[in-house]
Write a structure and sequence with these properties.
The complex is a heterodimer.
Chain A: H1 4-20, E1 25-30, E2 33-42, H2 53-64, E3 84-85, E4 96-97, H3 136-149, H4 153-159, E5 171-173, H5 183-192, H6 196-204, E6 207-208, E7 220-221, E8 227-230, H7 237-242, E9 248-251, H8 257-260, E10 270-273, H9 274-284, H10 309-314, H11 316-319, H12 343-349, H13 352-379, H14 381-384, H15 387-427
Parallel strand pairs in A: 1-5, 5-10, 8-9, 8-10
Antiparallel strand pairs in A: 1-2, 3-4, 6-7
Chain B: H1 22-27, H2 35-38, H3 41-48, E1 55-58, E2 64-67, E3 90-95, E4 105-112, E5 139-146, H4 150-161, H5 166-197
Antiparallel strand pairs in B: 1-2, 3-4, 4-5
Helix pairs in contact in B: 4-5
The chains are: A alpha/beta, B alpha+beta.
């Protein structure tokens, strides 16, 4: 018997599988008339696979190593000498030196990676492990993620495809396009579905490659346009699409990560035929059953049922359990401010400082005003003084001057008398 | 996988499934968009933040990361302002005068969803779900607004996203004002040019 907990767990998985991974109907468009929807297909389960860009990156990086061609330096490069070290005692470095005579080369250093004409450090060998084996399941997960990413507009737009005006994503067209033979018909089709912007983008941005690759048959670099995915082996579509710049074509039974996630970047703009789209369920399976063509392959389960962070945070489950947010407490200032110099710091310590300052300021202003008024008043004062007052002041001044002079005369006489006395004393 | 503790098993299934109050809402017939739970903008951000077609990195001064995304009204590449991954965002662009007409105005585009489908209970397994929203039909509300109608534009923006995304509205309105100012100047030169030729 299962515990209640386990029962809830299993019950919730099934609810999740039924509801959260609900697979809507995708419209199938008439390839001749972009406005007409001729059918509907349930979205294959693989488009609900978790988008694991880490797996895609890993798989892409390692699969990219598989197209490498071996290279290495010549095995005997730098070693084709019978050079020997002269040993010590000859006032030269102990590096092996080329023997013989009659040429500049004799006596020169050889063999070392530091020597001119010597072999390199760790000469490159062709038996380096160039290729990588990637686990089959990992490769399948990567493809599933890449497919899942290709049905979300933000990711396809982030990859740089011009899909602003296409009718729907994923874009599924009826099987009639598989029998299109002419390139001009494909171009007309792309224009009809407003996918030609993507092709034009590619054509517009073809550039000569920077670097030596341009001399090694990699002269031009171009972007990637739409990817047509078909299912019937004898589709004439292949030949029709071949010559359109940027357009690539792929069989649904042989989906390639380098086409679905070029450069390891998810979100290729894919154009599906109806049979290719429907075949995905058979190839990859869904959450209810494993794939048939990919035997026993089960799509990964996402680690989060609900990736919407804002909803999670505002949900009852979390809000009822979390504590209230703490108001940030700052125990002390990050940098001490000198209150003698910093007015704000002073104010914080002594709230009366500002009041005092203000009072002083007002007082100073008043005093200054008073002084100015007094000065102004005093400026015309001498004109207003009457003649009597002036006489009085003059006589007073004279009196004080005479008194001072009298004092000085007395002092002079006293000092004269003292002088005479000393003189008398001295002579007598 | 789930947010359960051992004691949670005792509770009623309706109460805690770690899915927020989605099901409660669904039971009461309110509108939900299932896509929100499959692919949130936070998830898109994790996939897109390091590398996307709009990214512009500059080393001048400090290393800054900018964005050419039309739905980004500040230019800085941050989650909040990365508009093309968000549910509600607005793109403001200027309409430049062309050869045939001298219209100067601005375009206001929203990443808008079509009307959500009301659902009172979970649909039957075989029921045809014709919901264009699931497969992200690209619909954008495009409002070519002439220079004289900046107030209408700002009102539309504020009504559509003013409550749910106040910071984004602020940035959008700022950009709208800047575009409007530039348009006025442009219009003046266009007018004088046409007067001169005429």
């Amino acid at each position: 018997t299962q515990s209640t907990w386990e029962f809830q767990f299993h019950k919730n998985i099934t609810i999740y599988l039924e509801k959260m991974l609900a697979r809507p109907q995708v419209s199938v468009f008439n390839s001749a008339n972009a406005g007409e929807i001729v059918g509907q297909v349930t979205l294959p389960g693989v488009f609900r696979a978790p988008i694991r860009n880490d797996i895609v990156h890993f798989v892409h990086v390692n699969l990219a190593k598989n197209t490498r061609q071996a290279h290495g330096v010549k095995t005997n490069a730098g070693m084709q000498h019978a050079a020997e070290s002269w040993g010590t005692g000859r006032a030269v470095a102990r590096i092996p030196r080329v023997g013989g005579s009659g040429t500049h080369r004799s006596g020169q250093a050889a063999f070392g990676n530091q020597c001119r004409k010597g072999r390199m450090f760790a000469p490159l060998k062709t038996w380096r492990r160039w290729h990588r084996k990637v686990n089959l399941t990992q490769k399948r997960h990567a493809i599933a993620s890449a497919l899942a990413a290709s049905c979300w507009v933000p990711l396809v737009v982030a990859r740089g495809h011009r899909i602003d005006d296409i009718p729907e994503l994923p874009l599924v067209l009826d099987d009639k396009i598989e029998s299109i033979e002419k390139t001009r018909d494909i171009i007309a089709l792309l224009k009809r579905f407003r996918a030609y912007d993507d092709v034009e983008k590619v054509a517009r941005t073809i550039k000569i490659r920077a670097g030596i690759g341009k001399l090694r048959n990699r002269r031009y670099r171009q972007r990637k346009g739409p990817l047509f995915i078909y299912s019937n082996e004898n589709a004439k579509l292949i030949k029709a699409c071949r010559n359109v710049t940027g357009v690539q074509i792929c069989n649904v039974n042989r989906l390639n990560l380098r086409l679905l996630a070029p450069g390891g970047q998810l979100g290729r703009f894919c154009i599906w035929t109806q049979s290719a789209f429907s075949a995905l369920d058979r190839i990859f399976g869904s959450y209810r059953k494993t794939g048939q063509d990919k035997k026993n392959y089960q799509i990964q389960r996402p680690s989060l049922t609900n990736p919407d962070l804002s909803r999670l945070i505002t949900s009852n489950e979390i809000q009822s359990v979390i504590r209230r947010a703490k108001t940030p407490v700052r125990r002390h200032d990050l940098q001490k401010k000198n209150p003698l110099k910093n007015k704000g710091a002073l104010q914080r310590l002594n709230p009366y400082a500002n009041v005092l300052k203000e009072l002083n300021r007002k007082q100073n202003e008043q005093n200054r005003k008073k002084r100015e008024d007094a000065i102004k008043a005093g400026r015309g004062a001498s004109k207003q003084i009457s003649a009597d007052v002036k006489k009085q002041k003059r006589s007073q001044r004279k009196k004080s001057r005479d008194w001072v002079r009298g004092i000085f005369n007395q002092l002079d006489e006293a000092s004269k008398r003292d002088q005479e006395r000393y003189v008398n004393l001295a002579t007598n | 996988f789930f947010f359960f503790q051992a004691e949670d098993g005792i509770r009623d299934a309706q109460e805690s499934r770690g899915l927020g109050d989605v099901y409660k809402r669904q039971v009461h017939g309110r509108v939900i968009n299932i896509k929100d739970y499959l692919m949130s903008s936070e998830l898109f951000w994790q996939l897109v933040k390091n590398n996307n077609a709009f990214l512009v990195k500059r080393k001048s001064g400090r290393n800054i990361t900018l964005s050419r995304d039309p739905f980004n009204n500040t230019g800085f590449h941050t989650y909040e302002h990365c508009g093309f991954i968000q549910r509600n965002s607005v793109a403001i662009s200027a309409v430049r005068p062309k050869a045939d007409n001298n219209n100067v105005g601005f375009n206001v585009e929203f990443t808008k969803r079509k009307r959500w489908i009301r659902r009172t209970r979970a649909p039957a397994k075989n029921a045809k779900q014709v919901n264009p929203d699931f497969t992200y039909r690209i619909t954008r509300e495009n409002l070519p607004i002439k220079t004289g109608r900046i107030h209408t534009a700002s009102r539309v923006i504020r009504r559509k996203i003013g409550i749910t995304r106040p910071n984004v509205t602020r940035a959008a309105l700022r950009k709208l004002a800047a575009v409007h100012r530039a348009n006025i100047a442009q219009r003046r030169t266009v007018r004088t040019r046409t007067r001169q030729t005429a």
